[in-house]
Amino acid sequence: MTTATTYDVAGMTCEHCVRAITTEVSALGSVDDVAVDLPQGRVTVISTAPLELATVRAAIDAAGYELTGVHA
Questions:
Q1: Which of 17, 26, 27, 30 has its CA 20 to 30 A from that of 2?
Q2: Are the C-beta atoms of 52 and 18 separated by less than 8 Å?
Q3: Using CA atoms, how far apart are residues 66 and 10, in angstroms rounded to an integer?
Q4: Is 63 exposed, middle or buried (0-12, 13-18, 19+ CB in 10 A)?
Q5: pTM
Q6: What are all long-range contacts of 1-5, with beta carbons under 8 Å and residues at least 24 apart?
Q7: For residues 21 and 14, is the Cβ–Cβ distance under 8 A?
Q8: Residue 45 in contact with residue 7, Cβ under 8 Å?
Q9: Coil, strand, or helix at residue 48?
Q10: pLDDT per residue over 31-51, tens digit each?
């Protein structure tokens, strides 16, 4: 079973942002895929198990961005 969750992320503007977010979030356990939508400011994470919001927030913070919302 996979889980898809979309997060609103503030401050993403370029391919550097995409790589930074993808690298940090992909390093979390159980993450299968990370898709960044720059125009919408959203990051969709596909994982084999639900991820704790605090864990995802910490990864996005580590990349230098701010998680501002979640869509199940």
A1: 17
A2: no
A3: 5
A4: buried
A5: 0.94
A6: 1/48, 2/32, 2/46, 2/47, 2/48, 3/46, 3/47, 3/48, 3/49, 3/50, 3/51, 4/44, 4/45, 4/46, 5/44, 5/45, 5/47, 5/50, 5/51, 5/56, 5/70, 5/71, 5/72
A7: no
A8: yes
A9: coil
A10: 999 999 999 999 999 999 999
- Give me 19's structure tokens: 């790589």
| Amino acid present at 58 | A
55 phi/psi in degrees, rounded to 5? -70, -45
CA angle 36, 22, 63 (to 5 degrees): 105
Place of tokens 């084999």: 48
54 residue type, one letter? A
The CA–CA distances, whole Å, from 43 to 11, 16, 49, 54 equal 12, 14, 17, 15
Token output for 67: 């998680």
